[in-house]
Amino acid sequence: MKNTGKLLSLLMLGLTMFGSFSCTNDDEEDDDDIIVTPVGEMKTISGRITANTTWSASNQYLLSGFVYVESGVTLNIEPGTIIKGDGVQKGSLIVLPGAKIVAVGTPDKPIIFTSNKPAGQRKAGDWGGLIILGKAPVNKPDAVIEGENQSKFGGTDAADNSGQLKYVRIEFAGIAYETDKEINGLTFGGVGSGTEVDYVQVSYSGDDSYEWFGGAVNAKHLIAYRGLDDDFDTDNGFSGNIQYGFILRDPAVADQAGDSNGFESDNDAAGSPATPQTSAKFANVTIAMASGTPNAKFASAMRIRRNSAISVYNTLVTGEWPRSAVRIQDETTIANFTTGKIKMDGNTVAITGTPKEGVIEGTTLALFAPAASKNKVAAVADLKLSTGYNSITAKPGLLPTTGSALLTGGATLPAGFEANTVVGAFGTTDWTDKWANWDPQNANYEIVK
Fold first, then answer.
1. Which of 142, 153, 250, 425 is an S-S bond match for 286, by CB 3.0 to 4.6 Å?
2. Residue 182 — pLDDT band, cuts 50, 70, 90?
3. Residue 71 contacts residue 99 (beta carbons within 8 Å)
4. What are the distances in angstroms from CA 88 to CA 17, 117, 177, 198, 313?
5. Residue 178 pairs with which residues in a beta bridge?
6. Do the beta carbons of residue 51 and residue 30 sit within 8 Å?
7. d(CA 401, CA 65)
8. CA 437 – CA 254 distance, rounded (Å)
9. Which residues contact 358 (CB under 8 A, 6 or more apart)?
10. DSSP assignment of 52-110
11. How far is CA 185 from CA 88, 175, 249, 392, in A?
12. Could you report the per-residue pLDDT of 62-91, keeping only the tens digit for each?
């Protein structure tokens, strides 16, 4: 009788906790009431999602192979949901043009895309990545997305809407689908300005942390943490505004197949005059590198080349970049700078070491830092940065200290940005609080039973 009583008590507790309520079926659209799947189920997802679907925080999801969200379909992901990628099958999530992903977490319950390996065994390239494709303009006919090499993207709708990413972490992505050909942590192809991207952290990517191929999507509050190749890579006519970005590199980790830069930007692979021209604008970015001898494959904090015309405002560049801090490469791109297509205002460059091509490469310091531009070349010691501002062994010290010139030394930002004169990603507010993770290697992502 005692055992029966205990069993009945446990049954009643389970019914109280898990009950039943109306929600969207994880596998297909269904208006009927369903029984909630027990907490702790791992659902393997493969193939194509062809009906509106909700992924619940009550479960975890394992991406097996290329998983496609089809045109006309919306994938909703609840706050706190954990999605893992299968390494053997190169699991990746690909949102096709006309589809939407609505992944809106909260500071306390971010949505996490991560490795399927246990704590302590994770590494860059454990799975594929997140690819979002849209119908906004690109400058490459019949564009096929890098990494997956099958799906086309782009169109004529600059305001196309591919959904929302908010309070999302993407960790240990970037698997090589072929030798030296990897998927990025987060890839945008022809994504339009109707898409919302805010508070996203890409950590330990096995290729670029973020790459934009054309499109006009805007984004704010982006973290690129300890990636392998480039951090913010822009190509094929990308024209969006990116504000508040934090890049932190491990000096020991760089791409051995090429070179690693903070920013890398091309109009296209040939440096052609194809339109729309790559003309993205970045404001309030911090580029940092932890202390230590940099790997020989590191190059420049910013590498702008191949007829790109991106502009950079109120950005802080630190770290021991071996080649240069700002590299404006090749005649066409240098012409874009001298004629004002590339604008750089309010930036502070304070790198350490002795870069072999100088701090500014491709133009002169006088042209880079005329008084009206508010660009400066400074020493790190004079910036009043927080202790541990470039730490990769604990949460970095993100906020400049009282009296730092970074708090007020920036330029007036162009239309389309939140107005401020802060140089770098942070003023007096730590926008990474709660939702970001500086040690995902040891995070506990085990299923809760």
1. 425
2. confident
3. yes
4. 36, 11, 11, 31, 42
5. 181
6. no
7. 47
8. 21
9. 324
10. -EEE-TTSEEEE-SEEEEPTT-EEEE-TT-EEEE-TTTT-EEEE-TT-EEEEE--SSS-
11. 17, 9, 15, 19
12. 999 999 999 999 999 999 999 999 999 999
- Of 101, 214, 92, 100, nearest to 153 by C-alpha is 214
Q: Which two tokens stand for residue 124?
A: 């860059």
pLDDT band at 39 (very low <50, low <70, confident <90, very high): low
Cα-trace Rg, the chain: 23
CA dihedral 419, 420, 426, 428 (to 10 degrees): -110
Helix or strand run (H / E) with residue 12: helix 2-18
Quote the mean pLDDT of the chain: 92
Write out the two tokens for 72.
């006309």
To 10 degrees, the CA torsion angle through 111, 117, 120, 126? -80
User: Residues of the chain with pLDDT > 90: what percent?
Assistant: 88
The pTM of the full predicted model, rounded to 2 decimals, is: 0.91
Cα dihedral 124, 262, 183, 203, rounded to 10, equals: 40
- DSSP codes joined into one string, 108-138: SS-EEEEESSPTT---TTSS--EEEE-SS--
In terms of DSSP H, where are the helices of 267-414?
331-338, 365-368
What tens digit of pLDDT does each residue of 374-425 get? 999 999 999 999 999 999 999 999 999 999 999 999 999 999 999 999 999 9
Phi, psi of 406 (to 5 degrees): -65, -25
Name the residue with tokens 């022809």.
190
Q: Compute the C-alpha angle 178/94/264, nearest 5°.
A: 65
Distance of alpha carbon 49 from alpha carbon 218, whole angstroms: 26
Kindly report, residue by residue over 137-158, the tens digit of the pLDDT: 999 999 999 989 999 999 999 9
The answer to whether residues 203 and 440 touch, using CB atoms and an 8 Å cutoff, is yes
At residue 5, φ and ψ (nearest 5 deg) are: -60, -40
The alpha carbon dihedral of 6, 7, 8, 10 has a sign of positive
The amino acid occupying position 169 is R
351, containing H or E segment: strand 348-351
- CA within 13 Å, CB half, 414: 13
CA distances from 329 to 73, 150, 230, 299, 323 (A): 42, 31, 16, 12, 12
Q: What is the DSSP string of 314-335?
A: S-EEEE--SSEEEEE-SHHHHH
